[in-house]
Design brief:
The complex is a heterodimer. By secondary structure, chain A is of the alpha/beta class. Chain A folds into 2 domains: 211 residues, P-loop containing nucleotide triphosphate hydrolases (Rossmann fold); 71 residues, Alpha-Beta Plaits (2-Layer Sandwich), CATH 3.30.70. Chain A has a 6-stranded mixed beta sheet, with helices on both faces. In chain A, strands 11-12-10-13 form a 4-stranded antiparallel beta sheet, with helices on one face. In chain A, β8 and β9 form a beta hairpin. In chain A, α3 runs parallel beside α5 and α4 runs antiparallel to α5. Chain B contains 21 helices and no strands. In chain B, α7 packs antiparallel against α11, α15 packs antiparallel against α19 and α18 runs parallel beside α21. Chain B folds into 2 domains: 257 residues, no CATH class; 238 residues, no CATH class. Chain B is 75% helix and 0% strand. Classes of the chains: A alpha/beta, B mainly alpha. Chains A and B meet through α2, β5 and α3 of A and α12 and α16 of B.
Chain lengths: 293, 528
């Protein structure tokens, strides 16, 4: 598959702080690419650089076969962007803003627009100053989804949405992928990324610390289990999908990949499970692991 | 002894003061320095009482000046002249100071959700209102007190000094109350400000009708009418302060009562819905810029047309006066034309600086869009940076040209109607000449926004400084180098027909260079 966007060795400084530090990113055509990282890791800076809003200090950026700094307007007709902090014109109505952004992008599908407004339960006649954070995000999201574009750049688009709308959003993303569109989705929520993304890039302190297809990153999505067994197996560490085994008397703790979870449980049952505690790894835990390296 | 409620009120007032100190200090200083400065300059300008009585006759008979400044009372004294020149103008500004201060610290905070945050602490809802109101009242009293002290310092009689302070500060007190009520009624800060400004406009209109017709009692139904009835240096009715105080307290009490009856974030007036679809004009950056700024340019046009018309209508009486006054001749500056020509040229210059302020405001919209993050959303579409800035540039340059032309034509028309000799050709030439420095000021703002956005806050102060140099520079006998700072010093006097055409061409070139610099630099810098 060809790359739709690529950043290689990109560095960006703001005064003495380094926002991006020889950062790499590679998004392939037709995939939903998850972009994860803690607050202030450089996600938004990278996205704004892809949009040609910021200049690079070093490194190359390529977007849809062009240079986002040089060819911004023509490239932008082929993409839609949803910023993390949505700021709208308080005196315009939501419907007016959707139409304006769509027209500036080169036209939008009116039927799709109306369908999305209904699905997302947005009142398009409200003035933007009356919208909540979630509704402001919906306005920009609808404008993006109703536009005829190849690439969607989404910066934490669901941070203000309720769980119902979040589910609707995930459905929309799958439709977009089925239409052959490429999505770069920056997010805090590992569950969202797991549910949607084909590939993932993790950024920390301006550097790419982890990347690849979701399948190749299965070790990131393991479940941590602590159990007390009557007779703990000695060879647990060599079982498939098991990592980070620790043993204290008859209490063992280990990480197990989602795929091997059920098989592991079946194999452990004969060893006499007396107590069990499990917790899925949080994004925080993943980052903590990155910090420890 | 301090109750918890009083303690938290004090803490909130401290917070408000911390947020508003420079703004309030600037307002209070500007409003309290005006009267003493005018008093001092009039002391030297109109030293003979014969001069003052002819001035009194000329001004007292002009209905349009009465509409703007109120009835001419006691113009035979320096104090009376000062009061007539500054009272209405300063009272309106004191009211605007009160309105913006109170709304910023009450409804604007509530709209931004900060009130909710504070409300979750051990504060009663009334504390926020109380702190905002206290700040507004203190600022108004500051204007009254400092203004009176300043007048005393330049040798004014005590009763008159105190009266003028009260007349100006009193308007501030009442409009603190008006703004406090408006902030309960409207849902948004903009709505509350507009509502209070409508009340201010109505107060102005009511007293203007009262002053110019036989229905004098109307004066007593307008807070600005009360300011007039204080009659500084012409009776000094200090008891009117009681009316200001009672009405201010009553309005603040009403605001408190309304506050207790509503939810945080809600108002009394429903918000009107907008269209579900964008109209045909909202298809481009230019369409958006027009939607955001056109109404302001219309307001500027109306304002400058009215200003031009009023100034034009007193042309003949002022010109008659100027023939005997060396100071007025100095005000008009050097030139070879008739006094009428010089006067019109000078007024066109003033209109031009004001028109530049309108244009600069439109251009600065590009910067505020960028700071709010909305430019980012626009520039992520097919819109180029040049077009984005360009849409505001076109509106700023064309807008200021239209505003200046309207003001200039109104000036010429009413001047001719008042009996002055005005040649249409030279009036149009004068407007054309003044377009150049006006565009230079707008282009400077464009260059700042494009190349050094951090410094774009300087664009409006430069216009204000230029206005000061243009209208008071000759009068105050400022040194040549100071006058040379203003672009207006270097344009030919038209009508009047003197000056250097080369300087005008050089300015046009500078304007083009600044414009190009701004547009090119905009495409080369980081956004945000």
């Amino acid at each position: 598959m060809e790359s739709v966007l690529r950043m290689s060795g990109v560095t960006k400084r703001f005064g003495s702080t380094i926002a991006l530090d020889a950062f790499d990113l590679d998004v392939r055509a037709g995939e939903i690419h998850g972009f994860l990282g803690p607050n202030g890791a450089g996600k938004s800076t990278a996205l704004r650089m892809l949009l040609g809003l910021l200049r690079t200090d070093a490194g190359q950026v390529e977007l849809l076969g062009g240079d986002p700094w040089r060819d911004a307007p023509s490239l932008h007709r082929r993409l839609a962007y949803v910023p993390g902090e949505v700021s709208l014109w308080p005196q315009l109505s939501g419907g007016e803003i959707i139409d304006l952004l769509g027209r500036l992008r080169g036209g939008l599908d009116v039927a799709r627009r109306d369908e999305l407004i209904e699905q997302f339960e947005l009142d398009p006649t409200r003035k933007a100053r009356g919208y909540s954070k979630g509704n402001r995000q919906k306005v920009v999201l609808i404008a993006a989804l109703a536009s005829d574009v190849e690439l969607l750049l989404l910066d934490e688009p669901t941070s203000g949405l309720d769980p119902l709308m979040e589910a609707l959003f995930q459905g929309c993303m799958r439709e977009e992928r089925a239409r052959g569109r490429t999505v770069l989705l920056s997010s805090h929520m590992l569950s969202e990324v797991e549910a949607l993304c084909d590939a993932v890039t993790i950024i920390r302190a301006g550097k790419r610390v982890e990347h690849g297809s979701l399948a190749s990153l299965q070790h990131l999505t393991s479940t941590r289990i602590t159990m007390t067994l009557t007779a703990p197996p000695d060879d647990l560490a060599s079982w498939p999908g098991i990592a980070e085994v620790a043993r204290d008397g008859d209490e063992v703790s280990f990480a197990v990949s989602s795929e091997e979870l059920s098989a592991t449980m079946a194999r452990l049952a004969p060893h006499g499970i007396r107590a069990i505690a499990s917790h899925p790894p949080t994004l925080e835990e993943l980052f903590l692991r990155q910090y420890r390296r | 002894m301090t109750t918890p409620a009083l303690g938290s009120l004090r803490a909130l007032i401290r917070l408000d003061l911390r947020l508003e100190r420079w703004r309030i200090a600037a307002w209070v200083l500007a409003l309290s320095l005006t009267q003493p400065l005018v008093y001092r300059s009039y002391t030297s300008m109109f030293s003979s009482s014969a001069q003052r009585s002819s001035l009194s006759k000329a001004f007292g008979s002009s209905a349009s000046l009465t509409v703007i400044a109120g009835p001419a009372r006691g113009l035979t004294t320096i104090g009376g002249l000062t009061s007539w020149k500054t009272l209405m103008f300063s009272a309106v500004l004191a009211a605007i100071m009160a309105i913006t201060t109170v709304v910023r610290r009450t409804r604007a905070d509530e709209e931004a959700g900060r009130t909710e945050l504070l409300g979750s602490t051990a504060l009663s809802p009334a504390t926020g209102l109380g702190a905002g109101v206290a700040l507004g009242l203190a600022a108004s009293l500051g204007v009254a007190g400092l203004g009176a002290l300043g007048l005393l310092a330049v040798g004014s009689p005590a009763a008159g000094a105190i009266s003028l302070g009260v007349a100006i500060g009193g308007a501030g007190l009442v409009f603190v109350g008006v703004a406090a009520v408006a902030a309960q009624v409207a849902v948004t800060a903009r709505g509350a400000t507009s509502l209070a400004l409508v009340v201010l406009g109505a107060a102005f209109a009511v007293r203007a009708v009262g002053d110019t017709t036989s229905v004098h009692w109307l004066d007593w139904s307008s807070p600005l009418g009360w300011s007039e009835e204080v009659a500084p240096y012409a009776g000094d009715h200090l008891w009117v302060l009681g009316i200001f105080a009672v009405v201010a307290v009553a309005l603040c009490g009403l605001a408190g009562a309304l506050l207790r009856r509503r939810d945080v974030g809600s108002g009394m007036l429903p918000e009107r819905p907008g269209p579900a679809r964008a109209g045909r004009h909202l298809t481009s950056a230019a369409g958006l810029a027009r939607r955001l700024d056109l109404r302001w340019l219309v307001v500027w046009s109306i304002g400058l047309t009215a200003f031009g018309a009023v100034v034009g209508s007193v042309t003949t009486s002022l010109v008659a006066l100027a023939k005997g006054s060396s100071v007025l001749a100095r005000f008009l500056g050097p030139g070879h034309g008739t006094v009428t020509d010089l006067f019109l040229a000078q007024m066109l210059g003033m209109l031009s600086v004001l028109a530049a302020a309108a244009g600069v405001q439109a251009v600065l919209r590009a910067r505020s869009e960028e700071q709010a993050g909305r430019a980012e959303e626009l520039l992520a579409t097919g819109l180029s940076r040049t077009r984005f800035l360009g849409s505001h540039v076109v509106l700023g340059l064309l807008g200021s040209a239209v505003v200046l032309t309207m003001g200039g034509l109104a000036l010429g028309a009413t001047a001719a109607a008042s009996g002055a000799t005005v040649s249409p050709a030279s009036l149009l030439a004068g407007i054309g000449v003044q377009l150049v420095p006006c565009s230079v000021l707008v282009a400077l703002a464009i260059a700042l926004v494009g190349a050094v956005p951090r410094l774009s806050v300087l664009a409006l102060p430069v216009v204000v400084g230029t206005y000061f140099l243009t209208s008071f520079g000759n009068l105050l006998r400022l040194p040549a180098w100071a006058m040379d700072l203003s672009a207006y010093t270097h344009v030919p006097t038209v009508p009047g027909g003197t000056g250097d055409l080369g300087a005008l061409i050089a300015q046009a070139a500078a304007c083009g260079a600044l414009l190009a610099l701004g547009l090119v630099a905009m495409g080369r810098r980081d956004l945000g």
